[in-house]
Backbone:
């Protein structure tokens, strides 16, 4: 059992660090977080730099344009990118973490040719149309219909909580193709170009004040049958192909960002006056800072366990769902601590006193995104209890 | 980086686990705490496996494995609720003659700055090793004036209150003490991880068997979620304890003091919270002396205060945060 870099890993790290040190400063400054077109531009500009330097799709096989690197190297790159202040995957999330790997595993050669390169260059931005108003945690109860008409599917229905839909080119969409079949059996996975007639995107504003996700209204949207990934009615299995990946390491970038936010809060606490001394002199607060740092260290180690397990073939469920559950709870605790430190400065999304206080308020609210998006904490608890601990299923 | 168990590590822990289950069944564990219950023969068998010398160099009579393997062994022993001065023996094998072989039973105490001096296993020990900032002192246990407590909280861990610790000349210096404290804390945390997993396993088994409202209680989401949280606490704590173990072997991989302190925070939480959940899941049975659920909680209380406590550990981690 080892944590230290192997010689090859150390070499990779040094080269990545040097490249990042040169590349990051060439980026345009961060845009206003509510300006999605500007965010897309910046995120995809960064993705293009990564692609040209051979750092896109680090863990994708080389035959699909990736770097074909080991999961460990992927982790090292994410770590170094965060250290260098590089952008997180941003609007590239669904394409790179979800749709791309799904197409690699299940797509036709034509689909792979048409899509994978665009995901890696940043030219194609994807969104995920899984959830519906009546199908959230109970995703398999989705009702959006796709009816076969010659060599097309005709889609009608509604999707919701579709992140980045306003700026996406393609949507990975789950639709019902057989309403008579048991609910998990009649679902199909489709690639839906977002400029297809009949798609209306209505942005939804989040508690953080930005239109991060949207509702999709689908009215007789015609999509070629060749856009189907996997067999008709086999979409549930296809959707699950990459879920363990998303749950296992999909949150690494975010977790590093949370670690940075924790460090920034330490700095704020040291500068925040209290009746005597600063907030940092309050032993109760300091202990919570220490406990959260311990937990961040532990989750980083947990990630390394998951990556090592992945290199040996597959991240166990306890690694994927367990990580997400623990991470969600951690973000909420960090948010609580931030509000205790900021006190009335937390009444403002804008920075106060020359300190990055707004980011902490955002972080506090972001906790709900983590503990809800991608399967709520309660759903992760159900998964762990039934599939890992082997407890009997509930009467449903 | 390869942060997963090797086949050899799996074999080692399987071997220890089988031995512990066979030679230290629950009745034996409970009996160890009774006056005269310390079974020197079984203790000797545990020592003969090489347990206390896992991380001791072969030239000193040990097995010569890395510290992280000793961590895994303690995790396994903790899961089996193995009784006796396991941490003391692991720290003192190679330092105090006879401990490695199980012939000399040691007790160890880190001289407290406040409160009573409470020492585990002193009643059954041959030597008491006192650790403080400037070194360690080895005393014959018989030379120490102590009051043996009739009703220790953990029935399998006898404790004694020492009135005054004699002031002999220390052997070993501050550097040795620092290392012993870190390893002592780490091994106790490792036992807490095993403890947290085993208390959960016991509760899960019960939840599958026990029926109420015509169904196994484990099908109720209220219990499922409690138990899923136990699983997660164990896995998070295990990650931090293993990382600290690796860092003890590879100092360049991290800050050992921070890693050990962080592991303590998470292992203590996993040990006590999971054991409490385990008792609750057992309902009225959980409140009985007969069911083992309480033994996990009481042992967790012993372990979480060995060589440090969670609050102090959280502050120690905070002290490393430069901001
Ligand atoms: C920031 C964010 C981004 C998202 N992005 C996308 C996206 O890009 N694409 C997409 O398709 N979806 C997306 N989602 C949707 C997300 O997957 C769903 O919100 C989530 O699965 C929960 O579904 P729901 O909102 O319908 O809540 P509900 O399912 O209605 O749940 C409400 C509450 O009930 C609890 N609950 C429900 N069922 C159970 C049960 N069986 N046992 C115990 N408790 C239960 C839940 O835990 C929750 O607390 C996003 C959500 C968020 C917050």
Residues:
């Amino acid at each position: 059992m080892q944590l230290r870099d192997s010689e090859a890993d150390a070499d990779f790290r040094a080269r990545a660090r040097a490249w990042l040190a040169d590349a990051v400063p060439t980026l345009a400054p961060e845009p206003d977080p509510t300006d999605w077109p500007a965010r897309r531009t910046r995120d995809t500009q960064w993705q293009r730099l990564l692609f040209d330097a051979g750092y896109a799709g680090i863990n994708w096989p080389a035959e699909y344009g990736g770097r074909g690197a080991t999961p460990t190297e992927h982790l090292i790159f994410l770590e170094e990118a965060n250290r260098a202040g590089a952008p997180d995957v941003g609007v590239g999330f669904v394409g790179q973490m979800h749709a791309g790997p799904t197409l690699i595993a299940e797509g036709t050669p034509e689909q792979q040719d048409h899509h994978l390169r665009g995901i890696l260059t940043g030219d194609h931005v994807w969104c995920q149309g899984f959830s519906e108003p009546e199908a959230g945690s109970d995703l398999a109860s989705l009702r959006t219909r796709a009816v076969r008409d010659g060599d097309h599917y005709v889609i009608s229905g509604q999707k919701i909580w579709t992140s980045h839909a306003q700026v996406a080119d393609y949507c990975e969409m789950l639709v019902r193709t057989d309403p008579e079949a048991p609910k998990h059996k009649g679902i199909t996975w489709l690639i839906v170009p977002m400029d297809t007639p009949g798609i209306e995107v209505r942005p939804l504003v989040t508690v953080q004040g930005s239109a991060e996700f949207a509702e999709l209204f689908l009215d007789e949207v015609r999509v070629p049958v060749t856009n189907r990934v996997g067999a008709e009615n086999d979409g549930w299995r296809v959707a699950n192909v990459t879920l363990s990946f998303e749950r296992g390491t999909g949150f690494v970038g975010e977790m590093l960002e949370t670690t940075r936010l924790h460090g920034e809060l330490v700095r704020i606490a040291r500068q925040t006056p209290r009746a005597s001394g600063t907030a940092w002199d309050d032993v109760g607060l300091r202990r919570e800072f220490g406990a959260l740092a311990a937990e961040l260290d532990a989750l980083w180690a947990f990630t390394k366990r998951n990556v090592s397990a992945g290199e040996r073939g597959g991240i166990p469920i306890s690694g994927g769902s367990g990580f997400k559950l623990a991470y969600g709870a951690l973000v909420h605790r960090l948010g609580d601590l931030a509000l205790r430190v900021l006190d009335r400065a937390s009444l403002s999304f804008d920075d106060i006193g020359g300190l990055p206080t707004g980011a902490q308020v955002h972080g506090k609210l972001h906790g709900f995104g983590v503990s809800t998006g991608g399967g709520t904490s309660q759903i992760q608890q159900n998964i762990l209890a039934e599939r890992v601990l082997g407890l009997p299923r509930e009467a449903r | 980086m390869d942060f997963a168990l090797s086949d050899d590590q799996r074999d080692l822990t399987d071997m220890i686990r089988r031995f512990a289950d066979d030679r230290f069944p629950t009745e034996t564990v409970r009996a160890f705490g009774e006056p005269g219950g310390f079974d020197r023969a079984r203790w000797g068998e545990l020592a003969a496996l090489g347990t206390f010398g896992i991380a001791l160099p072969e030239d000193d009579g040990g097995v010569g494995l890395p510290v992280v393997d000793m961590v895994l062994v303690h995790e396994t022993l903790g899961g089996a609720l193995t009784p006796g001065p396991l941490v003391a023996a692991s720290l003192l094998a190679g330092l105090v003659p006879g401990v490695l072989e199980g012939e000399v039973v040691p007790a160890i105490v880190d001289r407290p700055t406040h409160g009573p001096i409470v020492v585990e296993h002193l009643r059954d020990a041959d030597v008491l090793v006192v650790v403080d900032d400037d070194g360690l002192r080895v005393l014959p246990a018989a030379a120490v004036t102590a009051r043996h407590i009739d009703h220790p909280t953990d029935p399998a861990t006898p404790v004694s209150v020492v009135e005054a610790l004699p002031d002999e000349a220390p052997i070993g210096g501050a550097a040795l003490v620092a290392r012993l404290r870190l390893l002592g804390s780490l091994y106790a945390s490792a036992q807490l991880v095993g403890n947290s997993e085993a208390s959960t396993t016991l509760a899960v088994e019960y939840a599958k068997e026990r029926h109420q409202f015509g169904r196994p209680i484990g099908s109720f989401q209220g219990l499922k979620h409690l138990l899923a949280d136990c699983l997660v606490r164990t896995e998070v704590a295990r990650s931090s304890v293993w990382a600290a173990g690796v860092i003890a072997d590879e100092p360049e991989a991290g800050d050992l003091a921070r890693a050990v302190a962080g592991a303590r925070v998470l292992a203590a939480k996993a040990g006590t919270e999971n054991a409490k959940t385990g008792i609750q899941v057992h309902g009225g049975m959980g409140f009985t002396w007969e069911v083992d659920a309480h033994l996990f909680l009481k042992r967790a209380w012993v372990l979480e205060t060995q060589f440090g406590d969670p609050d102090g550990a959280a502050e120690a981690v905070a002290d490393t945060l430069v901001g």
About this structure: Residues 283-311 of chain A form the longest helix (29 residues). Chain A is about 50% helix and 15% strand.
